[in-house]
Amino acid sequence: MNHCFVDNFCVASVSSHCDQRCGQRNHIPSDIPIYDGHIHLNQMTSKIQSDLLSIKVTPPIRQFYFINNNHKPDEWLIPNPSLNPSHAHIRSTIGIHPKYFTQKSLYQTLDNLRTYLEISHHNQSPENKIVAVGECGLDETSTTSIKHQIFVFEKQIDLAMQFDLPIVLHCRGSHLYKKLFDCLKSRISDKNQRLHWHCINSNANLYIVDLFLNQFPNSYIGLNGSITYETNFENTLMFKNWLIDRSRYLPDRLIFETDYPYLSPRNLHGTYDPSCALLATSEYLSKTIDDANQNALSYLQFSNRNIETMSVGMKYQKYLKYISLFTIFACLSYLLYTNDYVLMLDSLRLPFTNQSITKPLFSNITLTKNQTNDSILELPPRKTEFQNHVSDFHPRLSIHIFNQNVSLIGNTSKLILLGNGFFGSRDWGIAVPGRSSTQKMTSLFCPFLSERCDITTDFDRFTEADAVVYHIRDSIDQNRATQKRHPKQRFVFALWESPPHTPNLQSYNQFFNWTMTFRFDSHILTSYYSGNAYVHTSSPFYQTMLHENITRKLNLTTITKDHRPSDTILEKKKLGIAAALISNCGGSSKRIQFINELKRYIDVKIYGRCGLSCPSNINCRQFIAENYYFILSFENSLCQDYTTEKFFAALEHPVVPVVLGRTNYSYFIPSSGFIDTNQFSTMITLARHLNESRYNKEKYLSYFSWKKDYVWGLHNFFSPFCDLCLRLHLDSKPNVIDNIHKWWFDNTCQTAQVPP
Asked: Is the pLDDT of residue 314 over 80?
């Protein structure tokens, strides 16, 4: 990796070294500042400092903000801002690192720290003020005892609260994370205390980090070049999945830092440009999470905002609500007293909005080329049309009834026509003659839409229909459809099967408006999840269904699943380690070959048409769950997002799914709840992992812990029709799919490779 570039982006720039080499590369827009949330300017050579704080480019000059950590008491130094060029802004922290004090000197060091903080507190110049206490915490490599480290750490917590300053945390040694967290909980009385946990990476105790983020709403985690180190496969995999699982919340809680001159990103070494390190870290995070709505630039923007909030922005926020309330009260009192309020309200007519102050400011940032200057990248305008939202709870999918505001729909009703059958069933099992719209929508578990949509098979109502749904595996009368359709009608492409089991679609180009499939990028998601749905008990949908159940007297029942199987259940698992239930002995995924290869290392059985018969008095999947530790949920096709009941049905049972598919399964459940074969390069490493997990009781039980807050029972295979109903009300944007054949077939499936 070049020290000035990340992929094709020039850092442009902190140092003259990079300025001279950028040429016509793509630049980060110069009006976007660079914030480094944790740097050690005092540890640099004078040459590096000179490069860092000098700039030799033509205007406009980028602004740089450095949070300079003074963590060694014998080197504490608050830089004089008048000596810095106008583009470089240094904000200093001061603290006692657990490695850099001795038991003999600790009281004097603490007194000196208090003196620095008092001077800063009374200093009238904002540029000379200390912005945080730290870095401080616990370190297993320190020669000072943990007892004395905790004592000094707690004293620094007290000082930070006394002077109303954030705390920069340091912890080395995953076993010390809980001790540090316990110190924070016991000493901090105000949960709104600002905290920056520096250097979170694959070596961190992520369970404690989660507790930390939940306990303190104004806390942040520092990500630096160390997240790019992949020295331990299992730790790296766990950390990446952790980032993916929390990707929805990371923009509000991340801070990018270089920790310069330490912890440079992988492939950057020696004298490197800190801006390039920040961009390399952000790019690594962006590629790990792989969110179409975010990229390296947007994550940098989030970090910039959070650093600003952390260091200066939050200090007076706790007083803001009181000032605002007082101002509103004063204005209303005046208006009421003068009788001018009627005229004022009549002239304003402003809608009330409810926007959280912590809502991400750049939630839809993408990098786009500026048409007038190919070397500059800019932020696109915010879109205003209907947009998919992802649930706050697993499954983290764009299921509209989980994520859209139902109160926004009007009082009109939409008509959905089933344009053909579903594997020969004309009514699809839902548009049964004689059933009311209330009965239909209740059976689909969206009774709150019962007066907002109806589903019919009556072709005489074709021209009335707002949507006509066609199951692509059944015959379609295209001539009748073309003759009767009207411009505002939605023709919906519905399919549950994978591309290898789909007919040629060339004749349907420019025929359909919306897609209704298992693909995550479909307009309506028809995941097999719908047939075995699980719902978080804190989700808005679950709360709505509880209300509907009471007010409509629906007699709905839900089922909880065991999130910690008992010893009795575990003791019954005596037939082997793993088993699969397979009825299709072919399939492009080569799952039979995969299992035969796995059999060389561990005991694996196949049940169903392709193997042994299950006892006739029990469901076969239940039989496997009761007698084996793992169930091999292997798909017959390795196609984009294709995930069937082989995975979802297994979740209801006390057995751990081992998956083979081309899907990010962590969208469905936490990554701690399944084992993905794609994460193992050889068959023997997979076999070893299964065997070790089987004999490690706590490890095995941890796969079920996510089920604690979920219930089953609110599901129907055709529940996506609820989403179709809702989207018909909310999305009026015209749309025609020009080439449905290309969308469905091109680069969507991969050839199976059985690991050696």
From this structure: no
